[in-house]
Amino acid sequence: MKFLLVFDFDHTIIDENSDTWIVKCAPERKLPNELRNSYQPGHWTEYMGRVFVYLGDNGVKEDEMKRTMTTIPFTTGMIDLLGFIGENKELFDCIIVSDSNTVFIDWILEAAGFHKVFDEVFTNPAAFSSTGYLTVQHFHAHHCAKCPKNLCKRKVLKEFLDKQLERGVSYTQIVYIGDGGNDLCPVMFLKKNDIAMPRQGYTLEKRISQLAQSLSPVQCSVLVWSSANDIMSNLKLLIKD
């Protein structure tokens, strides 16, 4: 009996958006208007690439970025929740599927000592170039019209489950914990026995309730959370059953 926990990262594990938090490193902690206005829907990764060039051009170095990123607060109760999952790893496999990037997530998890809680992290690959600039790439290519160009979380989840099945691992239940519009696609992939946990007041919760109102509800159970303590209470009930 094993459960798969799938976490989003921004506004779920951490209480902020890691990509917008990095702007604290910019001169006067803001971006020029023409850079801010250059974002096009569905092309966030390209936009962040331009933000990183701007930071590099302004002499922002890796150590300053790291210091800034490790000050992001975790969501209320999340430190306790991740501690609980870490103590019960025989029951839980745990992955992150995020539109952030490998550098930011590694820094934040490492600084808080949570690397071992997660079996895998699926996010946009990032690295510092030889000139000291942070660069970011698309996670993969996909054909899903609903998702941003660089990442379809449903595709990631499906491929992970297929790979696990090849290794002889299948799950009693999948619990998907997230907040954003790009979490809807994987939630719609979940089966009747699975659980979606959208964060209260955020886009994912609103989208799920819109689907229910238009009489095409998601198949899985839906449990809304406002602090990670709510998630922990539900996980404790699951493992009791």
UniProtKB/TrEMBL annotation:
Catalytic residues identified in the record: 8 (nucleophile), 10 (proton donor)
Record flagged with keyword Protein biosynthesis: no
Record keyword Acetylation present: no
Binding site for Mg(2+): 8, 10, 179
Domain of life: Eukaryota
MF-aspect GO terms: metal ion binding; phosphatase activity
Pfam family, one: Put_Phosphatase
Positions that bind substrate: 19, 99
UniProt keyword annotations, A-Z: Hydrolase, Magnesium, Metal-binding
Family statement drawn from the similarity comment of this UniProt entry: Belongs to the HAD-like hydrolase superfamily. PHOSPHO family.
Name this polypeptide is given: PHOP2 phosphatase
Protein source organism: Chloropsis cyanopogon
Gene: Phospho2
